[in-house]
Amino acid sequence: MSRADDIETASGRVGRDDGTPRTRTEALIHLLGDDDTGIRSQAWGHLEKLGKDALDSALAAAADSEDPEVKKQAGRFAHEYRRREVFKEWLKFCRGEELDLETGSLLIARSEYPDLDPAACTDALDAFAGALERRVEAASGTDARIAVLVDLLSREAEFKGNEEDYYEADNSYLNRVLETRLGIPISLSAIYLLVARRCGLALSGVAFPRHFILKFDSREEDRTIEMFLDPFHGGRRLGVKECAAILESDGESFSDEHLRAVGDRVILGRMLGNLLNVYHSRGDRRRMNRISAMLKLLQEPQE
C-alpha cells in the first residue's frame, strides 16, 4: 500500500491468514506493521479513538502475532496507550484536594513504566517499615531512632547515591530505585520519607537548590531536636554548619530559609524537574513533552 488516505479501504480488505475477514480493529492493528509509514500513522490515530477495544487487540497482537513488525508496533501502541491513561490519572491527581508523595511518585514512575504494579512498590515500602517499627520501639531517644532508620536503609538495604551514573533517568523513578537501590538525593529522600511516615517519625524534606536532604524535627522533654540527614551519602548526619557548607560549595549564600521543610507538591515538582533536565540533555523530545505537561499540571494555581 502506498497511499495513507486509503486507510479505511486498506483496513476493510485485510484478512486473516486463513482467509476470513478481520474485524476493523484487528485490521487496523495489522496495518501498524505496514511498510507505508503514512498508513501506519493513520492506523495508530484510528486505534487511539477506539479505546479499550484497541488496547485489548493490541495486547493480543503483541503476544501472538506471527508478523514481527506487527508484534513490535502493537506492543508499542499498547505501551503508549497505557501511558496516556496514566496521564489522565495524573490530571485527576493534580486537581485533587490533597497530594501525597507516595501516590504522586508512583504515578510519575508509571508514566515511564505503565505496566508497573504499584502494589509491588507499596509492599516493599511496607516491609521496610515493618522492620523499622520493631527497631524504633526498642530504641531509646531521638538519636537511636534516627540511627536505626539510617542503619536499615543505607547499610542493610544499601540504598545509596548513584555517583557513577547520576543523570540516569531511572534514578528518579521510585520503582527502579527500589529495585536497584540507587538514586539521586530526592528519590532516596523519598524512600526515607515514605518508610519513616509509616512509623510516625517526624521526617520532612529540605529543598536545597542542588542537593535535597531531610530534616528530623522533634520535641524531647523540654527541648526541640533538629537534625539533618543526607540519604545520598549513606544517611550521614548534618549540622547547620555542614548544611551551610553544602550550599556555599554550590555558590549559594546560606540563610535559615534554606532549612525550611517543604511539602509533597514541592517534592514531586522537583522530581519532575530533574527528569525534564535529563531528557532535555538527551534530546528526548517525546519524554520531555510528557514530563513538561505533568509538571505544568502540578504547578497550576489551586482554586
Description:
- The chain is 60% helix and 10% strand.
- It has 303 residues and is α+β, with helices and mostly antiparallel strands.
- It folds into two domains: 4-94, Leucine-rich Repeat Variant (Alpha Horseshoe); 103-299, no CATH class.
- The strands form two sheets. Strands 6-5-4-3-7 form a five-stranded antiparallel β-sheet. Strands 1-2 form a two-stranded parallel ribbon.
- The model is unreliable at 1-5 (pLDDT under 50).
Features:
single chain, Leucine-rich Repeat Variant, 2 domains, five-stranded antiparallel beta sheet, two-stranded parallel ribbon, 13 helices, elongated, disordered N terminus
What is this structure, in a nutshell?
With 303 residues, this protein is an alpha+beta fold. It is built from 13 helices and 7 strands.
Shape: elongated
Arithmetic mean pLDDT: 88
First CA to last CA: what distance?
52 Å
Q: How would you spell out the order of helices and strands?
A: HHHHHHHHEHEHEEEEHEHH
Q: What percentage of residues falls in helices of 4 or more residues? A: 55-70%
**What is the number of helices?**
13
